[in-house]
Write the structure tokens for this entry.
Amino acid sequence: MFFQQLINGITLGSTYALTAIGYTMVFGILELINFSHGSVYMTGAFLFYVLVVMFNVNIIAAFLLAILVTGALGYILEKLTLKPLRIKKAAKITALISTIGVSIILQNGVMLLLGSETKGFPTILKGKYLSVLGTDIAYIQLFILAFSLLMMISIHFFIKYTKMGKAMRGTAQNMEAAALMGISIDRVVSFTFFLGAAIAAVSGILVGMYYQTVDPGIGYMAGLKAFSAAVLGGIGVLPGAMLGGLLIGVSEIMAAGYIHAGYRDAVAFSILILVLLFKPSGLLGKPFQRKV
């Protein structure tokens, strides 16, 4: 039972880790918590649902198209709601409240167009599983684990070695100095929102395939746990977001399996609180020092 729950926890945690990457990238550059991220996650899942179920688009084409459209949505939202505030040098709390408003608009927009009821979600490899030492591992779990790992490795190498990735890291370290070096801050910020939204869509689609259901409320708790994962690992630290996501996923599945399903969220957030009490910067984060 332990290994069965561990596989389930790692599968769920890998999707939290992907979603947390979007939070940590935006915070690393703008020092802003993007609370619309969970609703973008939900929108990506619904876009895939609409393309496959309503328009009979091929599942692979729908997957790619949903990711691109959701990335474009993140880009547009940044241009419409955050860039004007950044130009006016508004307080960060103003931008944070703006992201909350965007989240509410997206969630209610989906409910208005598609209804609030839970819908069956298209999936692949349904019902197929592999038995290893008495542990049943569904093929969809293997797919989610492999795809999430590939995504996280790709993002790591993109941030570390590409020109845009280096520009993102430079902007995160010192926005003013990066601008003086010729880096287009607006371009970097817009691309960060595009990439974060696209990754959130991937996570939303994978979770939808795993549970085979989708509803307009899925983004709230997923966004909250992904944010917690980013904080747990160290907000602004990419490997920390991945580690935090896995820890949150495993802890809540273990709590559901060994204590009670009703306590899974409480246990996950309790671990977060305990870690932050003893290491406020997160597991892989470093204390932030501001010169005055």
